Amino acid sequence: MFRYLASRAAGMLVVLAIVAVLVFVLTRAASGDPVSVLLGDQATAADIARVQKEYGLDKPLPVQFGYWLREVLQGNLGTSIFLQRPVTQALWERAEPTTLLALMAVAIAALIGVPCGIVSAVFRGRVVDQLFTGIAMLGASIPSFWLGIVLIQVFAVSFGWFPVSGYGAPDAPLAERLHALVLPATVLGLLNSALIIRFTRASMLDVLGEDYVRTARSKGLSESTVVLKHALRNALVPIVTVIGLTVALMIGGAVITETVFGLPGVGNLVVSAVLRRDYPVIQGALLVIAAIYVLINFSIDLLYAVVDPRVKV
Amino acid sequence: MSHAGLVQCLPKLSKRSLLGASLLAMLCAALPSQPAHAQGPRNFATLAMVAEPQTLDPMASTADLVGTIMQHVYETLYTFDAKWNVVPMLAESSPRISADGKTYAITLRKGVMLHNGRELNADDVVASLQRWMDQSPRGKAVGKEIESLKAKGPLGVEIVLKAPYAPLLSQLALPSGMAAIMAKDSIASPLKEFVGTGPYKFKERRPDQFVLLTRFDKYTARKEPASGYGGKREAAIEELRFVPVPNASTRVEGALAGQYDFADLLPVEALPRLETSGGKTVPIMTPSFGFPYLVLNTKEGVASSQAVRQAVQSALGEGEMLAAGFGDTRFFVAEGNHFPKGSPFYSTAGTTLYNERNAAKAKEAATKAGYKGEPIRVLTSRQYDFHYNMSLLMAEQLKRAGFKVDLNVVDWATLVQRRNDPKLWDIYVTHSGQFPEPMLSPPQLGDGAPGWWDTPAKKAALQAFNVESDPAKRGALWGKVQQVVYEEVPYINVGKFNGLSAKSPALDNYQPATWPFFWNARIK
């Protein structure tokens, strides 16, 4: 157990080191200059040069990378050029909406995806199966900004059930904030349920063909017991994997949905940082997102052991 | 129960309870909302802005958004009335200007309270203007004109110029890159607290969520009736909530749903929907909101030849470009005068060269100028749709006149970097707000801005314009500058566009403005 954990942890560090290098190189390889954006139209070349020096942006790239790495190793992700606050603080402030959104969206995706996947598998080839498969394909192909705007028009503008955008009033209690998350979570949930439907269906089909399922049926067990108890439990491993990966994806990838719904989350932070080349924020945020991704992957591996006793850790 | 049995039960229990809990949470969340203002008469306004302000220090940025928000907190010595005249705000009256036009004696209003409860004095003003001249890009340019800045007694401020510089008061009045007057003891870099004299004081900022301003009870208003940014200001709404809503479609939907009391800068395509909203929202058009302009590289490359620049100007049909950029004719005016009718700087000098769209003339002029088919590199971005749409049409017009065009579409951060390098471009596309004073924009009228326009004719025309402090004479002198711009083509003013925003029917007494302000507005 310990050896397994240690080797996985070492692997994680290697991945993060590669991510750090890639993130740094890629952000600097893109043209554009944060200082010109920061200072605006009226700034002179001398002003720009002075502020670049202030942020160490005049130094050669390897030196800049060295400084950044040294800080990162000490747990310091640097200070945002635009927000004038530490990147860790900026990320922390935006963690709540993003996390809640991801959890809510995954709950919705799983509640749609798992039952639909099971039904599709049980009624394989029948109209229901084709209907769900079609819906899944549709869900995977709809762009999230479009679905977002449509849901806003219907449920926020026409019916007035939900706010159009934002994360509740300044003094809003948690319930109001959650209420503001329903539409964006629905968008993400619907789109991501497609993958879960497909995986559940495939995994269930594998299992439903197994001998022990036939045995269970021949014992005279009810169909629901066979499907939900005997088949589903054994089909759970890939399903849990895909649900876990969906969470990871959403923590870093709800970018478009967060922008459309004006949510003050991590995705929004990254987008604005990219547009104005706020290097410390881009680098810090991507590194943290990568770390979360890696950690979730790691947790999924551990979860296998819980849902499937055959997996030995 | 055995240990093993317990363990077996665990996943079952947790799965079920998890499912139940999430269902419950979703049910709760799906309940219809209880808007905060249902609980009684509300006294706040939700104002949807285009982005998160990059800073709240009004001197650190020339971004309009920063000025729009912070003009409620900080005030300036002078400001603009509804007809774009400079009128006093914190100053008691217009300055006494010495006969040689170099010394400005300014007296402050007595009894103006700062947000920290102290009375404003001349030391605060001197320290603030000093900071403005040290740090703000616009202030630095003004600082070069200033010989000395001193306090004269508790309420007197004296500014001595090196040479007469007529735009001084307009520079002190502009809300963007603001010469904000702050409490001396609050001055720091970066600013830690925001202590001004405005009708609102700073309450809280949560990045990407909101900036809250709250009524300043001891605000000392002017006695004159309100006009434009000038005159009496009153914080009738207790709390202003500026929320960033960067997605333009979302701002439109929010306005239609009645979620915002004000939605700033909406796409022009949204007008029909706003007009037919059944009274849920009211569209607001701000005339002569801004002007798109093309900057030509006078330093290097193919456009460094004045004759080639003139040929480019002849090839362009600005009317078509505006139509491509803004669609609806209610949103733009194709006219060559750089300032609208009614402005003291309205002039038709040189405007016969505007909107020529004459491919034959351009072709001939280009050949005569020795143009040999070098590509004209146009730097543009999709940050604003109208930049891109205008660029596409411009490229076609240029091609029709025999020019080869290389359209470089980049994002905004790349554009603002590349334009600083004369080797990389020949024309770039941008826009500016329509300001009341020519020297405030575009920056190409100053020194060193991209394009690097620097000729004897420019210097002579601007010198004459800038030393004249009599507003009546300055109008005619601006005509001469405009003439030079049309002849030397350092930049091409494409025309004027109107701004579209929307307000809720509940927001009463809102006056459309380039930098929207909400003092004197009320919630019905």
UniProtKB/TrEMBL annotation, chain A:
<feature type="domain" description="ABC transmembrane type-1">
    <location>
        <begin position="95"/>
        <end position="304"/>
    </location>
</feature>
<dbReference type="GO" id="GO:0055085">
    <property type="term" value="P:transmembrane transport"/>
</dbReference>
<dbReference type="Pfam" id="PF00528">
    <property type="entry name" value="BPD_transp_1"/>
</dbReference>
<keyword id="KW-0472">Membrane</keyword>
<feature type="transmembrane region" description="Helical">
    <location>
        <begin position="135"/>
        <end position="158"/>
    </location>
</feature>
<dbReference type="InterPro" id="IPR035906">
    <property type="entry name" value="MetI-like_sf"/>
</dbReference>
<dbReference type="InterPro" id="IPR000515">
    <property type="entry name" value="MetI-like"/>
</dbReference>
<comment type="similarity">
    <text>Belongs to the binding-protein-dependent transport system permease family.</text>
</comment>
<keyword id="KW-1133">Transmembrane helix</keyword>
<keyword id="KW-0813">Transport</keyword>
<feature type="transmembrane region" description="Helical">
    <location>
        <begin position="100"/>
        <end position="123"/>
    </location>
</feature>
<protein>
    <submittedName>
        <fullName>Peptide/nickel transport system permease protein</fullName>
    </submittedName>
</protein>
<dbReference type="GO" id="GO:0005886">
    <property type="term" value="C:plasma membrane"/>
</dbReference>
<dbReference type="Pfam" id="PF19300">
    <property type="entry name" value="BPD_transp_1_N"/>
</dbReference>
<keyword id="KW-1003">Cell membrane</keyword>
<feature type="transmembrane region" description="Helical">
    <location>
        <begin position="235"/>
        <end position="261"/>
    </location>
</feature>
<dbReference type="InterPro" id="IPR045621">
    <property type="entry name" value="BPD_transp_1_N"/>
</dbReference>
<keyword id="KW-0812">Transmembrane</keyword>
<feature type="transmembrane region" description="Helical">
    <location>
        <begin position="281"/>
        <end position="307"/>
    </location>
</feature>
<feature type="transmembrane region" description="Helical">
    <location>
        <begin position="178"/>
        <end position="197"/>
    </location>
</feature>
